[in-house]
Amino acid sequence: PRDRSALPAYLVTHNHWFYSLDLFAALLLLSLATIEQPAVFHVRRAGGGARLVELFGLFLVGISIVMQLRWLGPRTFLTHRRSAVKGLVTWIVMLIDAVVVISRNKTHFRVTRAMRPIFMVDNRYLGGVRRFLRQILQSLPPIMEMLAILFFILLIFSTLGFYLFSPNQEDPYFSTFSQGFVSLYVLLTTANFPDVMMPAYAKSRWSAAFFIAFLGVSLYFIMNLMLAVVFVVFSDIEKEKFRKLLVHKRRACQYAFRLLVTCSQPSQVSFRHFHGLLRFFRPGTSDRDAFLIFKALNRSENGRLTRNEFYNIYDMCGYAWRTQVPPPPWFNGLPGPIRGCCYLIRRLIKWKWFDYFIYFIIIVNALVLITHTIILSTANIPITHDLHVTWDQITVVALYSVEALLKIIGMGPWHYFRSGWNVWDFAITALALGGIVAEEFADSFFYIVILRPLRLLRLFRVRKRYHAVFQTLVILLPRIVSAIIIIIITYYFFAVVGMEVYSQYDMKNCCVNTTVEQFYKEDNSTLYPDFYFLNNFDNIFMAGVTLFELTVVNNWFIIMEGYVAVTSEWSRLYFMVFYLVMMVVMSVVVAFILEAFTFRMEYNHTVLGDAVDGVSLK
Amino acid sequence: PRDRSALPAYLVTHNHWFYSLDLFAALLLLSLATIEQPAVFHVRRAGGGARLVELFGLFLVGISIVMQLRWLGPRTFLTHRRSAVKGLVTWIVMLIDAVVVISRNKTHFRVTRAMRPIFMVDNRYLGGVRRFLRQILQSLPPIMEMLAILFFILLIFSTLGFYLFSPNQEDPYFSTFSQGFVSLYVLLTTANFPDVMMPAYAKSRWSAAFFIAFLGVSLYFIMNLMLAVVFVVFSDIEKEKFRKLLVHKRRACQYAFRLLVTCSQPSQVSFRHFHGLLRFFRPGTSDRDAFLIFKALNRSENGRLTRNEFYNIYDMCGYAWRTQVPPPPWFNGLPGPIRGCCYLIRRLIKWKWFDYFIYFIIIVNALVLITHTIILSTANIPITHDLHVTWDQITVVALYSVEALLKIIGMGPWHYFRSGWNVWDFAITALALGGIVAEEFADSFFYIVILRPLRLLRLFRVRKRYHAVFQTLVILLPRIVSAIIIIIITYYFFAVVGMEVYSQYDMKNCCVNTTVEQFYKEDNSTLYPDFYFLNNFDNIFMAGVTLFELTVVNNWFIIMEGYVAVTSEWSRLYFMVFYLVMMVVMSVVVAFILEAFTFRMEYNHTVLGDAVDGVSLK
C-alpha cells in the first residue's frame, strides 16, 4: 500500500471474496462467446442480453481496477506494466467497443473480444498460468533464432524444389515458388507426406532424396534441436528461480533472526522467542511440534539456535511429525462386539492376500469385459441403448462395493479418503453402482454403464513403477492445469478471430476443382463421406474442435486449403501463424513435462538413495 | 590372447587391414540385396553371380571368425555372447542357406538375408553403433512398461469406442472391436485424424470429447512421458559410463604411479621418469610440451609429483599448448616484394570490414537469387534445362573465388583448411565455379547450377549462437552417424522381410471397394493421381523409401490398408511392429540429441563461465 489512506482499498482487494468476484467477472466475459453471434446457444434477444452481461462483467473488472488504482497510487499503477495494460488499455478499449455496439445496435467486426482472456490471466488465482506465460516469453528468443534457421532452410529447399520439380506438369505442389514454399511448410508438419512426394517420385526415383534430406534436416534435426534449446532454457530458468527463492528465504531468515535475538545473547535464539515466532509464522503448530522443530534445528543441542542452525527453519517446518505409536483406530470408543468385529476387518484388509484377491477380481473382470465386447463385436449384434446388465457385472460391482465398505470401516473414513487411489476406487464403484441401480428404472443411463472400462485403471495399482508415474502426475497436476489453461486461452484468442473472419462461410460442397474438393463433398457419390465441412468456425466450441485438429497437425492443410479456396491466399497467414504459436506453446509444454519428470526422477534417485553417485570420485 | 601360440592370430586380426577387409565383406553381403531378386540392377545371370559373391563374402567373414576362434580359444569364444551369435549361429545358418540355394538353383523364401547386418555391426569400426544398440536395449524395460500403459489405455478406449460409435452405421472406423482398436492405434500416430472423428462428430458434437481425451492422454501425455523416461534412463546410463571411465582412469593412474616411483622416493615422481612415461603414452609429445604438462601438473611447484597431482594427467595431456608468440606466417621465406604483398593481404583479411563486405555480398546474392526465382515463378516461364547463367551470378562466384584465394594466401593453406567453415566455403565455391565453367561447354550441368542456394548456408557464420549450434553438431557428428547407421540397419532388416513377403503383389488399381481405393488408382479419372502404388517393396531402395514414409507416420495406414487388402489381416502385424520399433529407436535418438545438447550447453555454461551458479548459496 502506498500510505495509510490506501490501506482500506488494499484490504478490500486482498481477500478471497474479492478474488472470486474478479474471477467470476473474467469467466463471465469469456463465456459471452457462447451466446454472442455466431452463438452456440440461440437465446432469444441474445444480442441485447449479451451486451448487458458484457457491461456488467466490465463493470466488475472496473471495480477491481479502481481499487488497485486506489491502493497502488496512479504513478506506481502506470509503471506496473501488467496492470497498466489490463486496466487502461484493454478495459477502456473494450468498454468503448461495447458501448459503440449498443449504441449502433448491431454487431460489427469485433476482434477486441479476443482480448478478454487478459482479465482472466490477471486474476490472483492464476499465478501458475502467469508464470507459465512468462516462461514461454523467456524462451522465445532462442526459439525465434531456431525458427529463423528453419525458415532459412525452408527458403533454400523451396528454391531448389522450384528448379527441380516445376518442369513436371503433373506436380501441383511445386508449380510456383510460393506454392513450393507452402508445400514444404506443410511438409514440415509431415501432414502432406508422402502425397507431396509422389508426383516427383513417379517421374524420377531420385527425387525421394530431396524429401528425405528435407525431412531429415528440418523435422528430425532442427525440430529436436529446438526442443533441446527450449529444454535447456527452461531448466536454466527453473534453476535460477530456485536459487532466487533460496536467496530470498535466506534473507528473510536473517531479518527474522535479527529481530529474535536479545541484547544479552546477540548471536543465539532461545526456545521462548522461537516459539513466539512460530505462533505468527505458522499459527496451527502445536506446542509439541514447535518443540520438535526446535530440537531438530538445534544440532549443537545446547538449547539455543545459532544463525546457521536457524537457516533450516523452512525445511523443518515443512516436515510433518508423526508419533511413533500409531494413533488408536477410530473405532476404539465403540462397544465391545462391534469393536472386535472392526479389529477383524482391519486385520483382513491389511492381509496381503486380500489385495491379491482384489487384483485377481479386477483382472478377471477386465478379461470378461473385453471377451464380452469381442463376442458382441464378432456376433454382429447391433448395440442397442437398453443393453441389459449381466449378472457377472452385478457380482463384480457388489464385490467392489463390499471391498470399499470394508476398507472404509477398517481404516476409518478419514484415512481411507486421504489416498487418491481410494478416492478413485470409490468414485468408480459408486458410479457403477449408481449406473446399475438407475438402469433398473430407466434405460437412459447407458452412458454410465459404458464407463465400466474405466474401472480397469485400478490395475495400475499393481505395479510399483506406475505408482511412481502417477504420483508424479499428481504432484505436477497444478502445473499441467496451468498449461491446459494457457492452451485454452490461446484457443480462445484464435477462435474469436477465426469466428469473426470465417463463420460467414459455408464449407459444404465448397472448393470445387481444388485438390481438397473431395473432402468437403456432401452427397452420395463417395462411399464414406469425409464431413470436413464440419471443421469450421460456426461457434466457439466448433472452432475449438477445429483448432484442436490444427494442433494435432495431421491433415490440417485440408482445412487451410478449404478456407483459402473460399476466401483468399491471405487466409494461410491465420493458419500458419496458429501452427507456429501452437508449436512454441507445445514445445514449452513438452519441455516442461520433460523437466518436471527428470527433476522428479532424479529427486527420487537422490532422496530414496539409489546412490549411483555415491562412490567417491574425489 | 589366450597364450603365446595364439599371438600370431591376434596380431593378424588386430590391424586396420584386417578390419577393413571385414568391413568390406560385410558391406559386400549387404549390397547383395541390390542384385538379388527382387533386384534394383538387373544384371544378366544375376542369380548365379549373387550366389558366388555371397559365398565369397561369407568366406571372408569366416576367416575373421576362425582367426578370432584361434586367439580367443573355443571356450572364451563361446562365452563371449556376441561372437558366438555372430559366428556359430548366423554364419552357419547363412552358409547352409546359401549352399541350399545354389544346389536347388532357385531362390526360396530367404529371411536369413535380414540377418546380414549382424556382420556389419560386429565390425571393429562400428563401436559407436554397438554402443547405441546397447543403450537402446538398456532403455527397453522402461519403454516396455510405458508401452504396456499405452496398450492398456488403447484397450479401454477401444472398448468405450465400440460401445459408443458402433451403433452408427456410417462410421467405418468403429464397426467392430478390432477395427476400433486398429483405428485408435493409427490415431495414436495421428495419421487418420480428423477423419476417424468426423463420422461420429457429424452425428453428435459431444463425440469430439472422446477423441480429444484419447489424444490428450495417449499422445500428449503418455508419449511425452515415454520420452522423459527414456531421457532419464539415457542420461543415467551416460553418467554411469562417465563415472566408470573416471574410476578406470583413476585406477590406471594408480598403477602407472606405482611403476614410476623409485625406492628412495616412494611417494613422488621426478620429471625424468614422467618424461619417460609420456614417451610411451603419447609418442608425439615434444620435450617442450612434456615439460609444460609436468609444470601444469605440479601444483606444489617442488619439482616432484604426488599421486593426487598425478591424477590430472589425462586432462593435462588433452590440452594443446600454444606459444604466446604466434608462429611466423608461412610466406616469411619468400622473396621481398611477394612477402610484402602477402602481408598486405593478411592485413586485409583480418580487417573486420572485409568480413562485413563478404556477408553483404552473400545477403545481396541471396536476395537476388530469391527475387529471380520468384520472378521466374510468377512470369510462368517454363524452366528449361539449359538455363543460362546470368552475369550477376558470374560476378558473385568470381568474388567468392577471389575471397577464397585471398584467405588461402593470407592464412596459409594449412590454417585455412583447418576450419570446417572454410572447407565448406571452398567446396561450394569450387562447385559453383565448376558448374559455370562446365555450362559453357554442355548444358547437362543443370544440377550443379541449381545447387546455388546452398551457398546461402554461409550466412550462418554471421551469428554467434548458430556458430555454437553448428559446433555442437560437428562434435556430435560421429554419434549421429551411428544413429543413422542403426536406422539404416533397421530399415534393411524390415526391407528384406517386406521384399520377401510383399514384392510379388502389384498395387496398381488395387483395393477396390476399400476406404483407400482412390489412393491406388491409376487412370485419368482423378485430377491429380496419388501414385500410392509406388510405395511398395519392389526392390531394396523402393522398400527403403516406403519404410521412410512409414517412419514419418503421416498416412502410413494407407500403405498398411493397401497391403491388408491384397494379402490378409495379418499384414497389419508387420506394419504395426515396424511402427513400434521405429518409435523406440526414434525416441532413443531424440533422447540422445536432447542429452548431448543439454550436456554440451551446460558444459559451455560452466566452462565459458556464464556462472549462473556462481553466487554462493552456502
Extended strand count of chain A: 2
Number of helices of chain A: 26
The sequence of SSEs of chain A as H and E is HHHHHHHHHHHEHHEHHHHHHHHHHHHH
Helical residue percent band of chain A:
55-70%
- Sheet with most strands: strand arrangement of chain A: 1-2
**Largest β-sheet summary of chain A:** 2 strands, antiparallel
Question: Uncertain spans of chain A, ≥5 residues at pLDDT below 50?
Answer: 609-618
> Which whole number gives the mean pLDDT of chain A?
77
Largest contact between chains: A-B, 106 and 106 residues
Shape of chain A: globular
Which helices and strands, and how do they pair?
Two copies of one chain form a homodimer.
Chain A: H1 7-13, H2 16-31, H3 46-72, H4 74-79, H5 81-104, H6 117-121, H7 127-138, H8 140-165, H9 177-188, H10 198-203, H11 207-260, E1 269-270, H12 271-281, H13 287-297, E2 304-305, H14 307-310, H15 313-318, H16 336-350, H17 352-378, H18 391-411, H19 413-416, H20 420-441, H21 446-449, H22 464-502, H23 517-520, H24 540-552, H25 556-566, H26 571-607
Antiparallel strand pairs in A: 1-2
Helix pairs in contact in A: 1-3, 2-3, 3-5, 7-22, 8-9, 8-11, 11-26, 12-13, 16-18, 17-18, 18-20, 22-24, 22-26
